[in-house]
Amino acid sequence: MAASQVFCLLAFTLPLLAVVSGHNITQILSESPEYSSFNSYLSQTKLSDEINSRNTITVLVLNNDTMSSLAGKHPLSVIKTALSLLVLLDYYDPLKLHKISQGTTLTTTLYQTTGRAAGNTGFVNVTDLKGGKIGFGSAAPGSKLDSNYTKSVKQIPYNISVLEINAPIIAPGILTAPAPSNNMTALLEKAGCKTFASMLVSSGVLKTYESTVEKGLTVFAPSDEAFRDVPDLTKLTQAEVVSLLEYHALGEYKPKGSLKINKNVISTLATNGAGKYDLTTSTSGDDVFLHTGVGPSRLADTLVDETPVVIFKVDKILLPAELFGKSPSPAPALEPVSAPTPIPAEHPSPAKSPPPVIAPLPVKSSPPAPPTEVAPSDSPTSSENSHAKNAAFHVNSHAYFTALFTLAATSLLL
Ligand SMILES: *[C@@H]1O[C@H](CO)[C@@H](O)[C@H](O)[C@H]1NC(C)=O
Ligand SMILES: *[C@@H]1O[C@H](CO)[C@@H](O)[C@H](O)[C@H]1NC(C)=O
Ligand SMILES: *[C@@H]1O[C@H](CO)[C@@H](O)[C@H](O)[C@H]1NC(C)=O
Ligand SMILES: *[C@@H]1O[C@H](CO)[C@@H](O)[C@H](O)[C@H]1NC(C)=O
Ligand SMILES: *[C@@H]1O[C@H](CO)[C@@H](O)[C@H](O)[C@H]1NC(C)=O
Ligand SMILES: *[C@@H]1O[C@H](CO)[C@@H](O)[C@H](O)[C@H]1NC(C)=O
Question: Of 369 and 34, which is predicted with more confidence?
Answer without folding.
Answer: 34
